[in-house]
């Protein structure tokens, strides 16, 4: 399992559109990607669940990746967060 | 007769049938089914159909109103693919043996409640999106297709409020007027109405329950009134007025190709304000002398990242070429305040109108500014482009701009890229710029007065605040004196001064502006011929007004 933390810089947080792009990105990999925020968690492959986390600007999320292609998924998602959120 | 008043955003008058937009449909009935597999297949088919519809809406919105308004339809498509949402619908059908419509409606309700209960306003508002996709699925399942505005005769749209996603779905040929209970004069509906030249009233305190499809109504944009169930006498009168308006428009057509000159020989330029390349059709159709304000923000709005130099260059070049040698004044980036763009990461401000916006962003983040300047200088080789800088308050800002422009020229020289240094002017929209306009006039090629911001800053009134309507007087002497001062400063140093704010299109002030010596008025395309008519009937050698 691989894991990274990220503090969201986007002004409205993980809002609908980037959440949609995130889901697309996560679904490219077979690994299970889970986003944790303050005790809540969501499967990154599920748009409404990710949005329901209500991640706002300045909040930190932990992203957990587990599966066969976790290394590739880790790099791709880290890059995704840094450039989109 | 039922009569209401509201704020008018376009002066026109119309009589026609009413279409109430967004009325609740019949409640969805729960039915027992036997074949769960078949019911789930129905959901899947409806889901595919819904995504097709959304793709069409996305394409239409992209073309008509730009990507920022279109993005929502992409999100809706993604929501329709959400596993949790679909699982919930399928589970209900399988375990409770209920019809697809009911399962979708209940699931939609649950998910929208989940968002409605969140504490953040942005996420709260997403509950409407979930409802929207669920309603779409239910409509398809029930065999009802897109909104009811598709095939009927042209009508007056009455609604609580209209979102961009709703107006984009409407067939523009079938709209006679807009009447909304909510919304502001800067709302999407208002802008659309002005562009389409149709009457629109907003903030009309009517009870939608009392209004029905097919009722007849009169919308009078001159008086700011809507009258439902008008009597025959009024209908006759309105038909007469509509005929008069049509005649007036026809007469205005005759003014195409004529000069904007008063009876005593004073000339004034009338240019057009535009927001995107797509508006050029309106500019040419109304015989504008040029473009007095090309809001370059549209290139930046509704996307995920900065437009490249090449993208900007092509847009500016296209406008310059289409205007074939007529002047095209392009205002550099005016982001901030009420125009927010995610990827600028501007952050929340307590007082955005007085905050980090327009030229201030460009001077603090010169990389953004330089990309635009490079594109502008390159495009200037292809036509009569002028650059205009917004939100200037001090002379040092202009000095700093020129330094940056120099750097850009140097860069282009080094790369041996062809370019031209166009005329450069500034917007006068702060009282500070008015007071030092004599100094600024020595530094720039022209002034264009942005009366919307100038009025807001001078009168200390936020125009979005309805409580202040009684205090808001756009004809305030302070504003008119400032305009005179700016014109005089410009003329003293052989420069020209125009007006590109809303006040420039106010027919009640046209004579005064001509007398003041204003050189140019830049207005919505639909106002050009109307102002031309006023000017051609003026004689400023005769007694003062």
Bulk shape of chain A:
globular
Beta strands of chain A, count:
4
β-sheet strand percentage of chain A: 25-35%
Task: Give the overall average pLDDT of chain B.
Answer: 88
Strand order of the largest sheet of chain B: 1-8-7-3-4-5-6-2
Please report the two chains with the greatest interface, counting residues with C-beta closer than 8 angstroms to the partner's C-beta.
A-B, 22 and 29 residues
Determine the number of helices of chain B (DSSP H or I, runs of at least 4 residues): 19
Within CATH, the superfamily of the largest domain in chain B carries the name Phosphoenolpyruvate-binding domains
Rounded Rg of chain A: 11 Å
Number of structurally distinct domains of chain B? 3
CATH architecture descriptor text of chain A: 2-Layer Sandwich
Reading the helices and strands of chain A in chain order gives EHEEHEH
Description:
The complex is a heterodimer of chains A (85) and B (545). Chain A is an alpha+beta fold. Chain A has one domain: Histidine-containing Protein, Chain: A (2-Layer Sandwich), CATH 3.30.1340. Chain A contains 3 helices and 4 strands. In chain A, helix 1 packs antiparallel against helix 3. The termini of chain A are far apart. The mean pLDDT of chain A is 89. Chain B is of the alpha/beta class and 545 residues long. Chain B folds into 3 domains: 108 residues, Glucose Oxidase, domain 1 (3-Layer(bba) Sandwich), CATH 3.50.30; 106 residues, PtsI, HPr-binding domain (Enzyme I, Chain A, domain 2, Orthogonal Bundle); 271 residues, Alpha-Beta Barrel (TIM Barrel). Chain B has 19 helices and 16 strands. An 8-stranded mixed beta sheet of chain B has the order 1-8-7-3-4-5-6-2. Chain B has an 8-stranded parallel beta barrel with strand order 9-10-11-12-13-14-15-16. The longest helix of chain B has 30 residues. Chain B is globular and about 85 Å long. The mean pLDDT of chain B is 88. Chains A and B meet through helix 1 and helix 2 of A and helix 2, helix 3, helix 4 and helix 5 of B.
């Amino acid at each position: 399992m691989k894991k990274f933390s990220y503090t969201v810089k986007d002004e409205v947080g993980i809002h609908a559109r980037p959440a949609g792009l995130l889901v697309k990105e996560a679904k490219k990999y077979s690994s299970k990607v889970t986003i944790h925020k303050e005790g809540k968690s969501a499967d990154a492959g599920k748009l409404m669940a990710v949005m329901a986390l209500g991640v706002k600007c300045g909040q930190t999320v932990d992203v957990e990746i587990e599966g066969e292609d976790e290394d590739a998924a880790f790099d791709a998602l880290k890059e995704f967060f840094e450039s989109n959120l | 007769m039922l009569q209401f008043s509201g704020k008018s955003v376009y002066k026109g008058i119309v009589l026609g049938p009413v279409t109430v937009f967004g009325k609740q449909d019949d409640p969805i009935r729960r039915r027992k089914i036997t074949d769960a597999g078949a019911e789930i297949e129905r959901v899947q088919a409806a889901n595919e159909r819904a995504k097709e519809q959304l793709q069409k809406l996305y394409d239409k919105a992209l073309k008509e109103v730009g990507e920022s308004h279109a993005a929502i339809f992409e999100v809706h498509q993604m929501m329709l693919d959400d596993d949790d949402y679909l699982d919930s619908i399928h589970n209900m059908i399988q375990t409770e043996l209920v019809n697809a419509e009911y399962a979708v409606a209940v699931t939609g309700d649950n998910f929208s409640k989940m968002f409605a209960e969140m504490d953040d306003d942005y996420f709260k508002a997403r509950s409407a999106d979930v409802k929207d996709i669920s309603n779409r699925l239910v409509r398809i399942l029930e065999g009802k297709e897109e909104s009811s505005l598709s095939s009927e005769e042209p009508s007056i749209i009455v609604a609580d409020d209209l979102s961009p996603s709703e107006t984009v779905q409407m067939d523009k040929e079938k709209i006679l007027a807009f009447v909304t209970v909510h919304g502001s004069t800067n709302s999407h509906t208002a802008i659309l109405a002005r562009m389409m030249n149709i009457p629109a009233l907003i903030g009309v305190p009517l009870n939608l329950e009392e209004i029905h499809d097919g009722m007849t109504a009169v919308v009078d944009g001159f008086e700011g009134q809507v009258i439902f169930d008008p009597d025959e006498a009024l209908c006759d009168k309105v038909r007469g007025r509509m005929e008069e308006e049509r005649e007036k428009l026809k007469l205005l057509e005759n003014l195409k190709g004529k000069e904007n000159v008063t009876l005593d020989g004073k000339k004034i330029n009338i240019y057009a304000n535009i927001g995107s390349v797509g508006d050029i059709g309106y500019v040419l159709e109304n015989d504008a002398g040029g473009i007095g304000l090309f809001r370059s923000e549209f290139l930046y709005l509704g996307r995920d990242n900065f437009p490249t130099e090449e993208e900007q260059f092509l847009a500016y070049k296209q406008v310059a070429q289409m205007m074939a040698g007529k002047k095209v004044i392009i205002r550099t980036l005016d982001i901030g305040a009420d125009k927010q763009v995610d990827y600028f990461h501007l952050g929340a401000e307590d007082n955005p109108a007085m905050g980090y916006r327009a030229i201030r962003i460009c001077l603090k983040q010169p990389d953004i500014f330089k990309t635009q300047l490079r594109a502008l200088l390159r495009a200037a080789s292809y036509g009569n482009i002028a650059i205009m800088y917004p939100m200037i308050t001090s002379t040092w800002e202009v000095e700093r701009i020129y330094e940056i422009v120099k750097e850009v020229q140097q860069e282009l020289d080094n790369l041996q890229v062809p370019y031209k240094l166009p005329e450069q002017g500034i917007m006068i929209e702060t009282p500070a710029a008015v007071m030092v306009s004599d100094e600024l006039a020595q530094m720039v090629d022209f002034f264009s007065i942005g009366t919307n911001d100038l009025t807001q800053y001078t009168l200390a009134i936020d125009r979005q605040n309805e409580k202040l309507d009684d205090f808001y007087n756009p004809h305030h002497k302070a504003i008119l004196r400032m305009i005179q001062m700016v014109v005089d400063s410009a003329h003293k140093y052989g420069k020209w001064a125009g007006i590109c704010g809303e006040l420039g299109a106010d027919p009640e002030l046209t004579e005064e502006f001509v007398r003041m010596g204003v050189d140019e008025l830049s207005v919505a395309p639909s106002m050009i011929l109307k102002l031309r008519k006023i000017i051609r009937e003026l004689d400023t050698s005769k007694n003062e007004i």
